[in-house]
Design a protein that fits this description.
This protein is mainly α. It has ten helices and two strands, in the order ββαααααααααα. Strands 1-2 form a two-stranded antiparallel sheet.
């Protein structure tokens, strides 16, 4: 759509936010429906990603239309994701351990013993008790309903005008918050083994926040693929470090006849993690250079309309 005095105006963000929330809510409910009973590893992964996206969007747009709005949704999505995290960690580690030594006859049997111990921990109902998830899930549904109602075009039609103060406020908040996230990642630099996990979390937060303004904020569409590649590499390294730590803790539970074999896996897993970290660091450098060279802001001609 073109205005009489210039190029196409920036799409309104409030309707976009309402649609994104409704779509995210529906997506989470679809995952829950298809994973009735015990969720598969894929469903669990998809659910945690959807919850992290929801929390990132709620955090990015909190305080709209009123102070504190969106904070309940952010916390509810975070709490449910955290309740699911231990099960996901064990399942990913189990899969990686089985795959790593599948073609190594000398170590495969020991790896399977450790894998079965991990499987038992993943299936232990104490790790993710169903009743413990009921509360966070109910809170998430209530928070979604309240947030969608607050931003409903039918309820708050004046907010959706192009020149509304709320629209301008949302635009300003988003640009400011994205800039802070960008600067923080750049300041922290290439991750080390010690900073890998927090850098990865901040990277996800920035990427999922930027997805909301894809096609609206200049430079974002071109930036997202490199952020995703960096996130994938950082996630792989983090998973490998977690696997190494879990196996180290499990060694004492392995039958004595296999304990030496279990201990012999540790240097291999540690080297795998270090190699994965180097790959993540290689991915990080060009991404951080790109982030250093841009400013995450809306075009002034758009924000003025």
């Amino acid at each position: 759509m073109k205005t009489s005095d210039g190029p196409a105006a920036r799409p309104l963000l409030l309707p976009r936010l309402h649609a994104a929330l409704a779509g995210g809510h529906a997506g989470i409910e679809r995952i829950l429906v298809r994973s009735e009973g015990r969720p598969t590893a894929k469903a669990l992964h998809d659910l945690r990603v959807a919850l992290r996206r929801t929390a990132a969007l709620a955090k990015l747009t909190r305080g709209i239309p009123s102070e504190g709005d969106g904070e309940l949704l952010r916390k509810a999505a975070r709490d449910l994701r955290r309740a699911l995290s231990p099960q996901r960690t064990y399942e990913v580690s189990c899969q990686r351990l089985q795959a790593r030594f599948r073609r190594d006859p000398a170590k495969r049997a020991t790896a399977l013993v450790l894998s079965r111990l991990l499987e038992r921990q993943a299936k232990d109902p104490r790790k993710v008790p169903r009743q413990a998830l009921a509360g966070p899930l109910s809170s998430l549904r209530r928070a979604f309903a309240a947030r969608e109602a607050d931003l409903s075009p039918q309820k708050s039609a004046p907010l959706f005008a192009r020149d509304s103060r709320t629209e301008k406020k949302l635009c300003t908040k988003i640009a400011s918050r994205l800039e802070r996230k960008r600067r923080k990642l750049v300041r922290e630099g290439v991750p080390t083994a010690e900073t890998l996990h927090p850098t990865r979390i901040r990277l996800k937060d920035l990427r999922y926040a930027l997805e909301f303004v894809k096609g609206v904020m200049p430079g974002v569409t071109e930036l997202l693929p490199s952020l995703k590649s960096f996130q994938t590499a950082a996630g792989d390294a983090n998973d490998r470090f977690e696997l190494s730590r879990l196996v180290e803790a499990l060694v004492v539970r392995v039958p004595r006849t296999r304990r030496g074999g279990a201990e012999s896996l540790l240097p291999i897993l540690s080297k795998d993690a270090e190699r994965a970290l180097k790959r993540a660091q290689q991915q990080a450098r060009p991404v951080l250079e790109r982030l250093s060279a841009i400013t995450l802001t809306f075009e002034s001609s758009d924000t003025a309309r």
